[in-house]
Amino acid sequence: MLxxxxxxxxxxxxxxxxxxxxxxxxKKANIYYSLSITLPLIVGTFLYVxxxxxxxxxxYIYQLFNQELYLNTDNSLFCIFARNFLxxxxxxxxxxxxxxxxxxxxxxxxxxxxxxxxxxxxxIELFQKANILPGTFDILDILFEICITAFVTQLINIIFKExxxxxxx
Length: 169
Known about the structure:
The chain has helices at residues 2-51, 56-65, 77-103, 110-129, 139-168. It is mainly α and 169 residues long.
């Protein structure tokens, strides 16, 4: 009887310990996702406002603050890259994290989330080409967004692998 009680107590303690580990992992994951979704959106928005005064979001921010915040940049390779692609890269980074967060995806479903993100990114560009959405169609936008989406998918696969390993130990 004492062995049964001791065994039961140890099982309850182990379950509680696993629950504590799981809750801690969920908190860490929520912090990670919160930062990985919001910070790139903020940085990307600032880049649009500072480097691309012709965009809808820039015009809206200028009206909101009654001030233009545009930076006049040169035509160096870095400035051209930053002006044309960097905001989209931050946006794709945030989008991919958002999709993984919304779908509470496990590693084995990462390909599906990757394909959903790529389809969404491509659709946005095609809507721009068809003048359904404001903006300029650019095949390089799609390529850069696919690359960052693949990178984030791999990053999340690594994180999930480590978290699954932590959770099982």
